Amino acid sequence: MAAAEAGGGGRTPACLCVLCGLPAAGKSTLARGILSAAAEQEWRAVVVPYDDLIPEDAFLTRVEEDGVKLQYMIPFQHTEWKSHRQAVLQCVEQFLKRPEVFAEFPSSSLINGAAWERCIQALRHPEGLKPDRTPLLFLLDDNFYYPSMRYEVFQLARKYSLGFCQVYLQCDLESCISRNRGRTRPIPAEVILEMVKRLESPNPQKNSWEMQSVTLNTTDNVSKCDIQRVMELISWALTNPEADRLKCATSVVHRADQACRRLISEAMKTARESQVPSEQMRSLAAELNESKATFLHNLRKQFLQEASFIREEDVDVEHVVKRAVDFFDDSKKEILLRFIKEHK
After folding, report:
1. Which of 7-11, 133-137, 148-152, 306-310 shows the highest mean pLDDT?
2. What percentage of the chain has pLDDT greater than the value 90?
3. What's the pLDDT score for residue 125?
């Protein structure tokens, strides 16, 4: 059964894991380590190498100087290059929809067909494993220096109820440039320098969808501990698909919001009965609402981060809401009592 079609207990656990960072930061090395660890877990795993899948011409901007045609490897904000990136995700999506179709890919002129065929060969069902329940892992290997690039992957995960996580490889510039020089096909140093200016690492505080991210310091190469951390992150993502987590979190927060509103209404009634001055009633309402907003934000963040479930029906939402709202009720009582004491 396709991951896109599976549902409930029949869903194929699947995860899209984004590997991002500067060129030569160690993404390919990390990917090989993850593949080895995934094989030990009997997962089906594959690296989606953007550099191999996107034709080299897509990275080149053609200019002419003194009548001589030159080519520069500058992919930044290149419209055609963006189309190639989108075509890679289209390939992944088509496989998710129809995993039995190995020979087709949606944009043959934008993707290296031979490279894609090599990728998906690794996803054939291994002998002796149950295909419907064998975890499926895509390691997307690219720089992903803009959040918008990573968000496209997140959207795909959410669309098909897949796990989603990110690994940011933090490596100092000098090490990246040095490693790049030793490559068979090094990229121009100026491209790396330009990428440093543009790179925006995952920021869970700013983007809640980047919550499931880890940062690895790979200046001294990738360690076994690094691989273990990533495997734990992926394992969590496999059992916490995005669509279900978000749906359940939204339900919990919505119900908690309703309960908090009732508690605030009761608090305001008690304050009036206690003859709190009208000008202070406005301050009380503002403080209670600010407390509620902070509470709901933290609740959603904690729920997305810590909840371990696959389907919303597996969670006792009412119980979760009651326990959470009890904490807000305590905070509400403290605020109310302070205002009443101040004006007795």
Report:
1. 148-152
2. 39
3. 56
Burial 169-207 (b: 16+ CB within 10 A, else e): bebeeebbbebbeeeeeebeeebbeebeeeeebbeeeee
The pLDDT value recorded for residue 231 is: 96
**Residue for token pair 């003859």:** 275
What amino acid is encoded at 100 in this protein? E
List the one residue out of 211, 235, 229 whose CA is nearest residue 298.
211
What span, in angstroms and rounded, lies between the C-alpha atoms of 288 and 282?
10
* 197 phi and psi angles, rounded to 5 deg: -65, -30
67: left (phi over 0), alpha (psi -120 to 50) or beta: left
- Phi then psi dihedrals of residue 137, to 5 deg: -125, 125
Rounded CA gap, 331 and 328, in Å? Answer: 5
- Confirm whether pTM is higher than 0.85: no
* Among the ranges given (67-76, 82-91, 332-341), the one the predictor scored with the smallest mean pLDDT: 67-76
Rounded Cα distance, 329 and 260, in Å: 8
Within 10 A of 210 (CB to CB), how many other CB atoms are there?
21
Q: In one letter, which amino acid is 148?
A: S
Establish how many alpha carbons lie within 13 A of residue 278's alpha carbon, considering only the half-sphere containing its beta carbon. 0
Q: How many whole angstroms separate alpha carbon 254 and alpha carbon 300? A: 10
